[in-house]
Every structure is written in structure tokens, then in C-alpha cells.
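Human: Not sure, check this?
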Amino acid sequence: MITLRNFKADDCDFLAKHYLPEMATDKAVALIDEWNQRSCRGAYFEMFVIVSGHQPAGWISLYAHNETTISAGLEVIESARQKGLGTAALIQALAYARKLGYTTAIAQVRKNNAASICLHEKCGFSSNGECKTSQGNEAFLFRLELEQKKQKKGSNDEPPAVFKPDSTQ
């Protein structure tokens, strides 16, 4: 079982080891504060730590492209891979996005990333094209229609900082 939660200042060591090794602690704290504003370039954005067995195992972000479409960016640290954590995190993050009112999830997955292709297909995504990423990599475009809205975006309800997978969703 995993939980997703927002990053905290206590996560600076984890970030330094696995994400931004050159970043000073004060800059990492500022980045975490920025992530916790739930906005990037004027759009909804949220970054979560994937926690397994009380230890950070990766991160997943949600980014709104428009009022109905969201993407999730996922990274599981090498020592935690092949344990189903990425699948659990993506399913949980998409359920959260659905509760926020998003109806479509999209993803770009590099063609040479077989594990991510498999993960997206396992979670119900379908390939609907190809593209070149901003870094020049060949990628597949994936799309998933999410279930009906359960909560309006912009409501006064705060998104939960911690949530757990629920088999009834």
C-alpha cells in the first residue's frame, strides 16, 4: 500500500539524493513551497511524494492543460521499481484528478521506455499518436477518459494532503 502526500521541508534530503543533487537546502525548501501553491504558469499543478512503508519511493505530479484535461508525471526511484508502486501511484493520482473534476488524462511516453508504456496501458491509457518531446525524443501520446466528475474544481474544499488508494473507487 502507498500513500501520496505533498512534499514537506523534511523531504529535502530525499530530493537532494534522487532529484536535484546540486540544489542547496534553502532552494529545495523554496521549490517545495512553490509546489505546494498548487499552481504553475497559471494552471493547476500539484506534486506528491509516493510513500511506501513510511519511506519516500518517488514522486508524481498533476498538471492541468485546460479545464478538463490533466497529465501526470511519475518517477519511482530505482530501488523501489518493479513493486507495483508506479501503478498504484498513477491510479491513485488519477482518482484524485477525477474527484477534482478532470475528465481526460494524457501522457507523453518515450518510445524507449517500455516500463512506462506498460504502466500506462495497464492503467487503461490508449496510444493515440506519436510526437517528439521538447528534448527531441520520440514519444507515444496516450489518452485516458476518466469517470464522471465528483467534485467541482475551485470549490472551497481543500484537496487532501494525504490520501490512500480505495478499492471502492
In short: The domain at 2-105 is CATH 3.40.630.30 (Aminopeptidase). Strands lie at 2-6, 39-40, 43-52, 55-64, 69-76, 104-110, 126-132, 138-145, 162-163.
